[in-house]
Design a protein that fits this description.
Radius of gyration: 17 Å
CATH topology of the largest domain: Inhibitor of vertebrate lysozyme, Ivy
Shape: elongated
Number of helices: 3
CATH class of the largest domain: Alpha Beta
Distance between the termini: 30 Å
Helix content: 25-40%
Number of strands: 9
Length: 142
């Protein structure tokens, strides 16, 4: 019984580590903070570490946003929450067909460093990713 309990605790701990770790601003490298401040001056961020990169969450003009930044300060992507109805029509049709009766929890527009766009819809605890035209790309665990 003790082994099962310990394995359960270990498994839960690993899930939290993989999902991102909250991080004090003092633990964020200067190039990362400088890059964020240059793009969004005067905005208070919340930091997390994710797979060796830094995710910063913040609000701008009432919209929830996040940036994924490499340790050298290079921005990998910008994510901005959007209304579900603002997803491309093709993406909405795909979701309706492939996830019938499922609730879309939230949606986002993702701009990559190369300026390419993706859309993301969170359904059933999974991120469903689409290209700029709304064509399905992949499904990933949230």
């Amino acid at each position: 019984m003790k082994k099962l309990l310990m394995l359960t605790i270990l498994g839960i701990s690993l899930v939290f580590v993989a999902c991102g770790q909250k991080l004090a601003a003092s633990k964020v490298p200067a190039p990362v903070k400088t890059s964020f401040a240059k793009e969004y001056p005067g905005i208070s961020p919340k930091w997390e570490k994710e797979n060796g990169n830094y995710e910063v969450n913040f609000k701008k003009d009432g919209t929830s946003m996040s940036l994924l930044i490499q340790p050298n300060g290079s921005i990998i992507e910008t994510e901005m929450d959007i209304k579900i109805d603002d997803l491309p029509a093709v993406a909405l049709a795909y979701l309706k067909e492939h996830y019938p009766g499922k609730n879309i929890k939230e949606a986002a527009k993702i701009t990559k460093a190369d300026r390419s766009l993706n859309y993301e819809a969170e359904v059933n605890g999974k991120d469903v990713i689409f290209d700029a035209n709304g064509k399905f790309i992949k499904e990933a665990k949230d």
